[in-house]
Amino acid sequence: MDNWSARPRPQRDDMAGRYCRLEPVNAQRHGTELFAAYMEAPDGRDWTYLFSERPQSQQDLHAYLAKLEKSDDPLHFTIIDTEAGNAVGTAALMRIEPTHGVIEVGSITFSPRLQKTRAATESMYLMMRRAFDELGYRRYEWKCDSLNAPSRAAAARYGFTFEGIFRKAIVYKGRSRDTAWFSITVDEWPRVRSAFEAWLDPVNFDASGRQKRALANLRG
């Protein structure tokens, strides 16, 4: 590769879109709103495939967020719904390899307020845009428990290519995990980016907020 050099590490800077804004996690600023958002779920099943269980008190969530706040890799961001002005979830850039230009998105923790919304989709687009367009990374990864069907479906919807299963990859929560690997490469990014931008355009939604064209269909 001619003229290749190590890429910059992602910084703790905001990412702003039309429907959401991503801010570096701040336990003091985001804790109360995130706790309220997460507790709207009737139970902790959304946390089944995360490394932590859902905190059951405001104090526990504050301690959990304080750990995220101090981490550089993973680098955690809080997702703010710009219409409501509230914190509704978190996600992270992680396994950051500047030498090779490889980065992963993970620790995605969407509250019921964020799930299946335009803000949820835009948050993933903003993180990809940072990796590819702002930082010049070559490969953007998504990994999940092979049993996590919703995560695998989300990866496919967002435009990731399934690459295979790493068997018995890790042990967590007392379980052996086979890990499903997905990626988007820099060569695929222009097509993926165009689809995201077309899907997120307000003209793609009717007066009731229903999409006119699906994200996968916009990739052609």
Structural description of this entry:
The structure is a single chain. The chain is of the alpha+beta class. It has one domain (15-218): Gcn5-related N-acetyltransferase (GNAT) (Aminopeptidase, 3-Layer(aba) Sandwich), CATH 3.40.630.30. It has six helices and eight strands, in the order ββααβββαβαββαα. The chain has helices spanning 27-38, 58-70, 118-134, 149-158, 189-200, 215-218, and strands at 15-16, 20-24, 75-81, 86-97, 102-110, 139-145, 161-172, 175-185. It has an eight-stranded mixed β-sheet, with helices on both faces. A hairpin with a 3-residue loop joins β1 (15-16) and β2 (20-24). α1 (27-38) crosses α2 and α3 (118-134) packs antiparallel against α5.
Strand residue percentage: 25-35%
Overall 3D geometry?
Answer: globular
Could you give me the name of the CATH homologous superfamily?
A: Gcn5-related N-acetyltransferase (GNAT)
Give the strand tally. Answer: 8
Structural class: alpha+beta
Overall residue-averaged pLDDT value: 97
Query: Strand arrangement, largest sheet?
Result: 1-2-3-4-5-6-8-7
The helix/strand order is EEHHEEEHEHEEHH
CATH architecture: 3-Layer(aba) Sandwich
How many domains? 1
* CATH C-level class: Alpha Beta
For the sheet with most strands, the description reads:
8 strands, mixed
Q: What is the alpha-carbon Rg in Å?
A: 17 Å
State the helicity in percent bands. 25-40%
Counting H and I runs of at least 4 residues, what is the number of helices? Answer: 6
